[in-house]
Give the backbone structure.
Amino acid sequence: MDPNVPARKIPKYTALVIQPHVIVAEERSTIRKNLDRVCNLIDFGVGYTWELPTRLIVLPEYFLQGVTTPGKGEHGIDGFMKKAITIPGPEMEVLGAKAREYNLFIAGGGVVEQVPQFPDRWFNTAFIIGPTGEVILKYHKWHIPASIGLGSSPHDLFEEYGRVFGTDISRLFPVVDTDIGKLGTMTCHDGCTPEVSRALGYNGCEVICHPVALQEIEGVSAPWDFWKFSRRTRAHDNMCYLLGSNWGTVDYAYYPRSFCPGHSFVIDYTGMVLREADYPAEQVISATIDIESLREHRSRCNHNCWVDVRTEGFRQIYEKPIYPPNRFPPGRPPRTLADKMGPVSDVFRDIYGRGQFTPPAGLSINDMPKQHEARIRHAQDVGALRRE
């Protein structure tokens, strides 16, 4: 941007957050049912908000293919690869047609994507489609929880991934400048810690599109509503809107219907909740997005969460790896959740070894990685975790 050219004005617009029913797919044929459902919900929401037209839609994580978790219903890598798709591809073309039809942007995440450069695995991929129908942003989820996320993070094969896609912060955590503001995306567990949202904020993001498939057992409803208080914090600290989309209900033999119990919301740039569907059911919520108000808010010195950041004192935290990189290089994708949790032994060895964590009474520092490994073996013995 030319420093001497005044910024253009962005009119207010409506954003929709869609909270759909999701069917966990066993194969690609089920994907179309999920896709058709969200398209119908887009039609409903756009029609209802005609007076201040919708320009942005956010869909949840795994809205196309669903996902499995530990237990009898856990899929291994072969099960996921059976339903993996490509971006671009037929599914994105369907959503692209909706974006063209209504002149809007569509963001979603949790796409089980197979990329040609690394065909032995899948990535948890978020996307933004523009009004031309083209994919204008693609992001591979960075903070994938080892215990419930079988997809590969770029960090799992960081050296090779960097050679193909680059490792600059603008490449790993992209933000796209559009006529409705600067848009970025992060996926589910990315929002549990500050780093990904901070990277998006550093790259200029004004609206974080945040797809999740967040289970009640992980903390959605009060009293442990960490989903809301953590995301309010991410929006507040980065002075940006955050649009969080969760499933409404789900069909899967091994899940309760309200496995991911809604609570989708729109949060403004001060951390205030504007709208929320705080129940486990299909819903479409809307809110007015005012980028000009956000930009005026950012221009103030008082309570500005960027102008007072003093980085030098924190560099030591990130000088050395915590979760180790390159543990699942090309030719060695994670095959089960138990496999994916293997590197956590090294993490425990490090954080207990340097005194960040203290073991429970009766256990030593050296016991901690062993305890983790023993728990995995026991879970496999009783069928709670899949074996190879």
